[in-house]
## 1
Amino acid sequence: MTRNRFIGKTVVISGGAGGLGAAIAHEFGQEGAHVAVIDNNQAAISDVLKSLRAKHVTADGRAVDVRDGKAVTQAIGELANSLGDFDILVAAAGGSLGTPRVMDDISDEDLDLVIDVNVKGTYYCARAVVPYMKKKGGGAIVTFSSIGGRSVSPVTGVPYAAAKAAILGLTRRLAKEVGLENIRVNAIAPGLFLTDRLAGMFENLSLTERNDVLAGIPLGRMPEIRECVDPVLFLASNESSYITGAVLDVNGGRFMTL
Ligand SMILES: NC(=O)c1ccc[n+]([C@@H]2O[C@H](COP(=O)([O-])OP(=O)(O)OC[C@H]3O[C@@H](n4cnc5c(N)ncnc54)[C@H](O)[C@@H]3O)[C@@H](O)[C@H]2O)c1
């Protein structure tokens, strides 16, 4: 069932050319939003824009490294000129970015990469969109934490755990700062969603580790991509209008809090 919750809204998705980001971009488009994609993979951006436009979605994109704050601000400015001032940011650029899981194997550059893309990248994207949201009288930001930042995941290493936990602090503090501007800031913390990139990582785990992951999921199955996309759109929509500073765990019950 397609709804129309985002007609007249403009959304920017960082990492919007990736596995989850592209799926999120398509769903926003299906629900009537104008969609901006920023990512550092130009070829993947072109593919996403092509398929969005084939579905008559108004879409544009820029290749930008989210670690470069000035470049992010410039790209968001150009996209706002092209599509309209932003109502929604989904900050999905991130991941463990091919870095090793074990401390002995992790270089200083690996640590910087994971912290900078995930934490600074989320900060720079939020900093760039907030002025447009203030101008419009409100907005919604959805940041990407992870089960790896909420608990001890075997799939990723210490830098990823630190970065995804930091995004939760960023989310809460920013929610406090912009609440009176009617801007909500919430985090999503997905469990393992087998996008192309993650499918490879999952296959590289030992059989015991894979079985541990599955045995730890009370729902007893791996999720569909849609099961991450839908909660993101919920947090971006008016259906969550009194929710801010929250983290939504989307993991089939693998991690539960009190
Ligand atoms: N897939 C999962 O199971 C899972 C679980 C928990 C959290 N997450 C988080 O969800 C988000 C999306 O993950 P995904 O599975 O779609 O990964 P993905 O690798 O498919 O997508 C990430 C996108 O970010 C882009 N990117 C990487 N570095 C960048 C940079 N410096 N500047 C701009 N763009 C950059 C990549 O080009 C890619 O398109 C990430 O933040 C990830 O940590 C994913």
## 2
Amino acid sequence: MKVDPDFLTALNLGGGFDARMCMNCGTCTALCPLGVELLPRKLFRYALLGDRDRVLGQTETIFSCLLCRMCESNCPAGVHIAENVRTLRTYINREIHALAEA
Ligand code: SF4
Ligand code: SF4
């Protein structure tokens, strides 16, 4: 795993990404209608660890989220899951735009 120490800072330019309170309980994954094991808790863990490459490798999953907030309304830690997913999308869109400009 390659750690990018600036990844979280860069993520937060596009909004408030905050999953520090996540306890990795798995409630969100169990309730997600998409049934994607990765979404959202593992993705959030990768982001917190600065594993940018692994997050970007899950772009399709990030954009498949329905933003239905089923997970969020049952999160015992009060993590703003949908907002975090939106922030990840904003970051990815920014990266794609920057690549196109280069
Ligand atoms: S339900 Fe909340 S605390 Fe539990 S794993 Fe998901 S985001 Fe983390
Ligand atoms: S907001 Fe996204 S991650 Fe949460 S339950 Fe809905 S589809 Fe799944």
